[in-house]
Amino acid sequence: MGGYSTYVWGSVLVSAAALCAEWFFLRGRRKAALSHVKRELTLRKEHSDETST
What we know:
Elements: H1 5-52
């Protein structure tokens, strides 16, 4: 690699770490979003049940 192997492999390692971190944080945000939607649907169902009776 013409003496640039440390730079190249360091860049590959940092990029891989960034992708792993992004995947990890996206998983957390997805769980939070799904939980929020589930909670909203439950509240709407309870509200519609109360108003229909």
